[in-house]
Amino acid sequence: MAFWFFVLVSGMDIIVFNTVHAEQLPTTEEFISIDCGIASNANYSDSDTLIEYVSDDQFIETGVNFNLSSSSSSYRGPIIYQTYSFSSYITQMVTLRSFPDALRSCYVLKPVTRYKKYTVRAQFLYGNYDGKNSSSIMFDLHIDVNFWQTVNVTESTALYLYEVIVVALGDSVSVCLINTGSGTPFISVLELRPLQDDMYPAANTTQYLVNFFRLNVGPDLGSSPLR
Ligand SMILES: *[C@@H]1O[C@H](CO)[C@@H](O)[C@H](O)[C@H]1NC(C)=O
Ligand SMILES: *[C@@H]1O[C@H](CO)[C@@H](O)[C@H](O)[C@H]1NC(C)=O
Ligand SMILES: *[C@@H]1O[C@H](CO)[C@@H](O)[C@H](O)[C@H]1NC(C)=O
Ligand SMILES: *[C@@H]1O[C@H](CO)[C@@H](O)[C@H](O)[C@H]1NC(C)=O
Ligand SMILES: *[C@@H]1O[C@H](CO)[C@@H](O)[C@H](O)[C@H]1NC(C)=O
């Protein structure tokens, strides 16, 4: 399976998303937004984006929920995207789901439309949730049966964010966390967003695109770069 590294200069994000007024938000049809680790069957609407986040329940059966302790001295918020507003991130980062007992733990994201293009975004903030003060946790992410990314967490308070663009081959897209013997896999947020079919033509049924670098050119200070 071939994959390409790519650079996105997301002027398009600014045009598409930042000029939108609150009363005419674009559709969230086919969005899947999981705030991993929140209480079973809970859901809420994000205060900035109004996107509804749900719990893990309907997507995965294994795992243990954790809250990052707000009193934990190690937690001082995400350090990536530090020039942007964090308010919408912090809500989603303070809980996570951890998988101590499984070699392979898969989220089955559905419904999706076969042969439609999606971006899948996974975010990780360790925050010393297990009290072990680990300075190295590594595990792999697979998208369906293909290797996507090694997650390499070395900084307790950093937000690690990975994206991939895939074409759905069936009625679901799986994201699996693979324990490679270098620490317990965990995840803070998992999101799936539909894309127009003519975007990113390099992503097709036989190859996917892994985001290497994304640059948001000239955003307003404090604006949220992602939906
Ligand atoms: C969110 O929770 C409410 C109340 O429990 C429920 O009626 C609704 O179906 C839930 N929405 C989703 C998307 O799970
Ligand atoms: C996390 O905090 C919420 C709100 O205080 C609570 O309802 C939930 O039970 C906590 N979860 C865990 C795993 O401690
Ligand atoms: C966690 O580790 C860091 C560096 O490895 C150290 O400076 C810090 O004191 C440790 N914190 C705790 C609570 O053990
Ligand atoms: C993990 O990240 C650390 C810090 O960036 C780096 O020094 C180390 O080489 C990385 N490990 C692997 C296997 O990529
Ligand atoms: C996907 O794109 C690659 C590179 O352009 C091409 O080699 C491959 O045949 C395409 N696959 C399909 C199913 O079109």
UniProtKB/TrEMBL annotation:
One GO location term (cellular component): membrane
Segments traversing the membrane: none
Main localization of the protein described in the UniProt heading: membrane
Stretches of the chain forming a coiled coil according to its record: none
Position of the signal peptide: 1-22
Cited Pfam families: Malectin_like
Subcellular location: Membrane
Membrane topology annotation: Single-pass membrane protein
Keywords: Signal
UniProt name for this protein: Malectin-like domain-containing protein
Organism: Canna indica
